[in-house]
Specification:
It is a single chain. A two-stranded antiparallel ribbon has the order 1-2. A two-stranded antiparallel sheet has the order 3-4. It is α+β, with helices and mostly antiparallel strands and 77 residues long. It is built from two helices and four strands. Bound molecules: zinc ion. Zinc ion (ZN) binds next to strand 4 and helix 1.
Length: 77
Amino acid sequence: MEFRINSSCSVCDWCGKDVYFGNAMVTINRNIEQIDISKQFPDGVVTVIQSDVLLSLCAECGNQLNATALGQSLKNF
Ligand SMILES: [Zn+2]
């Protein structure tokens, strides 16, 4: 597997800018989880069964994320 330091790993869903490896980004995920409690783990153990990225943002857009903006974005799903 070739590693290229300038290759992008994602594109911001709001501004369309490439997000490169090593740069911060904000994601909103939908997780399906299961919690199991036992004598060994009385506080529970969480198993993530499935995780899907709903929204992927560059750091600049992610810092502008608030409840109103998130609500508008999630209406598209
Ligand atoms: Zn962005």
